[in-house]
Amino acid sequence: MNQAIDLIRSEFADVGLLLCDVKPVTDLPDSVWLSPDTPDKTRFKSGSLLLVGHAGKRFWEEFNQSEFWLKSPESDPVDNYSSAITQQALDKHLSSIAKQLLFPASDCPVNLMALGRELGWHTPSPLGMGIHEKYGLWSAYRAVWWLDEAFSENTTSASKTPATDVCAQCLTQECVAACPGTAVTYDNNPDLGRCADYRLEDNSQCAATCLSRLACPHAPEHRYTETQMHYHYDLALSAIARYRKES
Questions:
Q1: Distances 178 to 10, 46, 173, 205, 214 between C-alpha atoms, Å
Q2: What is the pLDDT of residues 90-103, one digit of tens each?
Q3: Which end of the chain is least crowded, N or C, by CB within 10 Å?
Q4: By the 8 A CB rule, do 217 and 173 touch?
């Protein structure tokens, strides 16, 4: 089974999914579940969770060469692509193991940030997103699978030592100064309401990007392309506008 996970990691890396770790459910804290007492936690009380993520530009390059741009605009083609390519590798190398996709899904029972912290992928940042020691702010979660197998601890590639707190070592706090909506402060979570207000303004500089994220001096070599940034931020802005209209 350990060899199968290694093969899966290798196939994922070929399409830019550079982050992949698996951990037994029994070794995960309750904080990994959005509501520890829900039926989902009971249903997934055994087995393992596999978290898959991308970092940098490679995943976007591979996605752009795929057929998923042609899918219905009513669904997220990146999510469709992530689901399909991860399932393909799991079906190939773990065909005998029952599995279920938990994310992307509207009813995902997993707290992605908590799972990422548990695997040592990131530490908190003033922008409210995790920051990776190697990839900085330029990584994201793409899929979570439940596998009906309790993989051994030595199957995981995550460091067993706590991740370096990148932002605690930052002396310049450039992300704070760069926020035109004054929504970012160093010692607190970002003011998401203020961020949304600014992004919805006419001629907002952050309509399709985030100036604070771009200002971060850590790991700039992994920064997303402008098109990649615009894709994700346009989706988010549409969701914000829709929510404001309905509320």
A1: 38, 45, 9, 11, 9
A2: 999 999 999 999 99
A3: C
A4: no
Question: What is the end-to-end Cα distance of the chain in Å, rounded?
Answer: 48
pLDDT at 40 over 70: no
pLDDT of residue 92: 96
Q: What is the mean pLDDT of residues 177-196?
A: 95
Structure token pair of residue 223: 């920064």
The CA distance from 24 to 70, in Å, is: 37
**CA-based nearest residue to 173, from 235, 215, 131:** 215
The three-point CA angle 209-212-215 to 5° equals 105
Which ranges of the chain does DSSP label H, i.e. alpha helix? 2-14, 39-43, 58-64, 77-93, 112-118, 174-178, 192-199, 211-215, 226-246
Q: Residue 52's pLDDT is what? A: 98
Q: How far apart are CA 15 and CA 137, in angstroms?
A: 19
Whole-angstrom Cα distance, residue 141 to residue 227? 19
- pTM score, whole prediction: 0.90
Domain chopping of the chain, boundaries: 2-155, 170-246
